[in-house]
Amino acid sequence: MTQLDERQRFMFSDFAVRGEMVKLDEAYKDVLAQREYPLDIQLLLGQMMAAVTILSSTLKFEGSLILQLKSSGRAEMVMAECRNGKDLRAIARFDDSNTEATLMDGHLAITIEPDEGERYQGIVSITGTSLAESIQAYFAQSEQLETRIWLAAQDGRVGGLLLQKLPENPDLPGLPASDEDWNRVVILAETVTDEELLELPIESLLTRLYHEEQVKVFHSAAVRFFCSCTRDRSANAIKFLGYDDAIELLSETEKIDIDCQFCHEKYLFSLDDVKQIFAQETAPEGTVLH
Ligand SMILES: [Zn+2]
To answer: Ligand 1 centroid vs 228 CA: distance in angstroms?
Structure first.
């Protein structure tokens, strides 16, 4: 059976250009089923999901890659997260009364959050009206890596393709790509239609594009919609609120109800739970909370 949601890495054998392709179907539909979005926001959300999947493929550790954009267009905030290269979740906030463009003036943040180690964030201004342009600008400015990305979303399906010219590195198999090599593979990729990105199986599209090049294809990896929310992380939201405010909230309601924005999972915290959260927090100092 053909995998509906997958990402696929490839490399050119003769020169150091790497590629990544992604196709999303069920994962995208699952995200769209969580909330009602207007069509333009649905399409942008899909492109964000494809982009975050593609970009997370280079992470070599457990953790998340998060793409977040804020704009003064109809899309006020869109966030997509890919955890461990396979678990996707995404959300958007939009202003339906805004009749201007979907995406305008704002910024795009790329955050890498390893489970262990330091968090890294790079930010770039939104360039033009497409997400792909802003991502390309990010790589040119922050990473000095020539990168091209194509994203297509339509009718509950998403497709994406990335090409990246790798810097000189003795550990890499191929020679650094000449301008001629790079331009040739980019020009060929530019012939890809949205329909092909969405419809063609990944390997067929690679054959159609690069049958005259030596391309090494790696194992494809399955991706899915899976929310990484947990009761412990919801407890952190209560910690953030502070003990006094949490107790005050509990005087109005029997339990604090934390509703995950991504998947609508509910986490309920009673007075005892709240006491326990803060007892753990302050235990080393020996504070007694009543
Ligand atoms: Zn969740």
So the answer is: 6
Residue 241 pLDDT exceeds 90: no
Angstrom distance (rounded) from CA 46 to CA 54: 12
Domain range enclosing 275:
231-282
pTM: 0.89
SS3 content of the chain, % helix, strand, coil (to 5): 35, 30, 35
How far is Cα 214 from Cα 13, in angstroms, rounded to an integer? 5
Residue 69 Cα to ligand 1 midpoint, Å, equals 20
The number of helix segments (H) and strand segments (E) in the chain equals 9, 14
Q: Do 245 and 211 have their domain in common? A: no
